[in-house]
Amino acid sequence: MYKPGGTIAAALEKIQTKSYVLPAIQREFVWKPEQIERLFDSLMQGYPFGTFLFWTVGQETSGKFKFYDFVLNYHQRDAAHCPELPKLHNQTVTAVLDGQQRLTALNIGLRGSLAFKQPYKRMNNSMAFPKKTLHLNLLATPQPDEDGVVYKFRFLSEDQIVRDDASLWFPVPDILGMKGGPPMLAWLTANKVEGDALNVAYTNLDRLHQVVHNEPCIFYYEEGSQDIERVLNIFIRLNSGGTVLSYSDLLLSIAVAQWKIIDARQEIHSLVDEINDVGAGFSLSQDFVLKAGLMLSDIASVGFKVENFTQTNMQKLEKNWTEVRKALVSAAELAANFGLSWQTLRADSALLPIAYYLYMRGSPKNFVTAGKYAADREAIRSWLMRSLLKTSGIWGSGLDTLLTALRDVLKKNGDAEFPVEKIEKVMDQRGKSLTFSDIEIDDLLSVNYGDKRAFPLLTMLFPFVDLRNHFHVDHVFPISLFTTKKLKKAGFSVDRADELWNLANEISNLQLLEGHSNIEKKDKLPADWITSQFANSKEQKHYCEKYVLGKIPLGIDGFEKFHIARRERLRTMINSVLGVEKV
Fold first, then answer.
1. C-alpha pair distances (Å), 539 with each of 110, 473, 536
2. Would you kindly state where each structural domain of the chain is located, as residue ranges?
3. Is the pLDDT of residue 402 over 80?
């Protein structure tokens, strides 16, 4: 039976007083600003808000579980997780089993703020995350656009708020403390709203006030059982359709509920944050960490199946967690040492066999740098890069079966070194061969700038580049020279512009340069840049030999000849580094 829960303002007060809480089985807040704006528009239009599922946790039970608060001031880097609440004692609370995203969206929109990273800015730049609060344009006439949106809600930072004849942005959180009628009119008058605009603005503001303070929008179903197994089953059945939670979210929920000592939710999320902060940064996920936990703890199958998340298995994972965590951090550090990052790691799962190997070896502190591990590191690097280069995709279909098989090989043969030959034999038996055909070599020679295979291929061709430093994938002939206008000026037919642009983006025109060198190079022709960088002809020749550039033409008119010649030299090198035997 569904019950009325009152107004939005009343619900937010219960969040503020910690009467509404989130159980540990809930996931993080995942909505984007546009979803919150759309929710407020729907409320203003009077659309159904949906029902909620609440779990009343009695005072005799609440102290047994962990609970979390709702996100208020979301910051994508610094405050993306639900804050943990102190342990409850003799207190009855209402835990939200269904409706967290909607309630959090209301909490942020009416009480808090958002801070998402702006495009093209670095994660470590605090200015990349401007604080934004929800605003409503009171001067916008309520008319539906092509998407059916009527009311103009926007998350805006202070410097984005513009007051003109068409816009008056009202800070939505102010509506909570504002009474209806005269106070609203006084606010509009103070902001110099007059004439017909006053009627539009007052109508919009009054509608917002009615939705928040007066209309009974909250309806819920209440579960009163104190049996965690029943509650967990309700939660999983409610969400197993895949539209509300991902399957890994559900499995994390089970892990959270079954770990006894360590806070699984906090540990897994903090580990995701830590490994993603290694080197230039990765985009590894909760799924990656959960699968790694299954693999490294030698749980029968690494698949995301409910039967793998039994209490026995989860206690085993909890017991091994410190070593699992250490191995995953070491694997991320090793990948960063190879120059990989979120931009260049084509398949996250490729790190899992490496993490398992490091786990077996006890994750030596100096594995990434010590000279005694150099041969082992090189064996891992070569295997990893080749697996990332495969066009067919090693880390796609049949992944769980492959990872389980590789774990068996490592368990039997990985006590002293990374057993590349035995690993590749098992991969070959499962149709995941690291042998490259002539067709695949031709495909690699056509890899374009921006393709995630470009980096591993270039690292194998030019292993002397110190990838611990900041580096760029660089065009030998700058791509800026290949606009239609510049090509026409250089004597090329306009009809060939697209063809030449494509050739300029292929691997034959790419190299790896340290960041500062690439910045200095900019739009210079390669012959001019090499002359400016190196004092004498001997050094210039050495540089050209290192990057197999051959004789560098002075102008862009010699580019095609350069491209053809370097392509063939790279073909020979690729055949060599990938172990392709030519008859």
1. 64, 22, 6
2. 2-220, 246-435, 442-577
3. yes
Distance CA 125, CA 189 (A): 40
pTM of the model: 0.63
For residue 527, which of 500, 504, 551, 509 has the smallest C-alpha distance? 551
Cα(305)–Cα(404) distance, integer angstroms = 14
Digit-coded pLDDT (tens) for 44-83: 999 888 888 888 888 877 777 778 899 999 999 899 888 8
* 3-state SS assignment for residue 280: coil
Q: What's the Cα-to-Cα distance from 173 to each of 30, 46, 141, 547, rounded to whole Å?
A: 21, 20, 21, 59
What is the rounded radius of gyration, in angstroms, for the C-alpha atoms of the chain? 29
User: By C-alpha distance, which of 221, 138, 144, 228 is closest to 187?
Assistant: 138
How many angstroms separate the most distant Cα atoms in the chain?
A: 90
- Residues paired with residue 219 on neighbouring β-strands, in sequence order: 4, 51
Helix or strand holding residue 331 (H, E): helix 311-337
- β-bridge mates for residue 222, sequence order: 54
Q: What local confidence, expressed as pLDDT, does residue 306 receive?
A: 66
pLDDT given for residue 280 in this prediction: 84
- How far is the C-alpha of 464 from the C-alpha of 18, rounded, in Å? 57
Read out DSSP for 476-542? Answer: SS-GGGGSHHHHHHTT--GGGHHHHHHHHTBGGGEEEEEHHHHHHHTT--HHHHHHHH-SSHHHHHH
Condensed to tens digits (0 to 9), the pLDDT of residues 8-36 reads 999 999 999 999 999 876 778 889 999 99
pLDDT of residue 232: 65
pLDDT single digits (tens) 527-548: 999 988 888 989 989 989 889 9
Cβ neighbors of 126 (< 8 A, separation 6 or more) are none
CA atoms within 13 A on the CB side of 189: 6
233 CB burial (10 A radius; 0-12, 13-18, 19+): exposed
The mean predicted confidence, pLDDT, of the chain is 87
| Phi-psi label, residue 579: left if phi above 0, alpha if psi -120 to 50, beta otherwise | left
Cα–Cα distance for residue pair 545/540, rounded to 1 Å: 9
Please list the alpha-helical segments (H only) found in 390-437: 399-413, 420-429
- Model confidence at 517, pLDDT cuts 50, 70, 90, reads low
Distances (CA, A) of 246 to 241, 280, 287, 304: 9, 28, 10, 11
Strand partners, 3: 220
Give 372-386 pLDDT, tens digit per residue: 999 999 999 999 999
Give CA–CA dist 297/404, Å, rounded: 12
Helix (H, G, I), strand (E, B) or coil at 165: coil
- 313 token code pair: 């298995």
**CA of residue 558 relative to chain centroid, distance:** 42
d(CA 98, CA 155): 25
